[in-house]
Amino acid sequence: MTATPAISASDAHAGKAASVFSSVHELTKPRITRLVTITTGVGFVLSAIAQSWQWTDLSLRALGCIVGTALSASGANALNQWWEQDRDAVMPRTCARPVPTQRVSSRAALGWGLLFSVLGVGTLLLVGLAPALVSLATILIYVLLYTPLKPVTTMNTIVGAVPGALPPLIGWSAAAAGNQLRDPTGLSSLTELGGWSLFALMFVWQIPHFLAIAWMYRDDYAKGGYRMLANVDPTGGITARMILLWSLCLIPATLVPAMVMHDRLSPVSAVAAVLSGLMFTALCVKLARSRERRDARRVFLASIAHLPLLLLVMVGDAVGVALLR
Asked: What is the value of pTM for the model shown?
């Protein structure tokens, strides 16, 4: 009889700890963090595959790169939620986030954001100077430039695409920093076209992706006081044309990596880029004609499928080319 209260107290403590962990995990925007980590990994693989490696060093460097990137992205996302907590509270799409619901206090959100950011950049510094600097730049642009611009100008979408496109350069430079004779810091790798071709791909992909989200949730963004193109475009005509224009730009952007990394990518990547790009553009054409929310959602979902599929093909293609040498 006397053991029951102790067990109940232990269970309650465990439940509270699990709740706190879940809330902090939600604070990091895990789906965005996962995508950032994946794109960083792609940059690492495509850079590393053209170099000579010892498997132990490669594994440790890849682990440090992935962990550091995940922590950095988690920190930036937590700081973003801390900054936007008042706006999140009035938007149906975001009002259930940890800070507006007080599952995580404002001070705790700031603390977690700073802690994750410092740990992330610090971990990447162990890998190389270049990946740490790129990660730091990503956090600063996302938190101190993009976030405050969201209620000020519709150009925030363009600015926000910059930190979203930088993660592949973290991976690219992290792999290069492992070559102690060629590039001990990884800094010279930041001048290589291969890494920047991945940046260009990611940058262009984000614009139709973000504009589709803004179209779907324009009422929410209006309540939050954000200046999104969809909010100042009552008929949706301008937004639709911009989505279509950027989807057309995405096809050459996805072809650039195959062109500048011809030593590690075969025509398979180019074919995949063209086919997937045309299918995505077809959905954007349909949206431009209908201007319906359901078609905006289809564009959004297609963008989510398009990028991972193309990156997977590129990685598989690069591995296949390396094995056939």
From this structure: 0.92
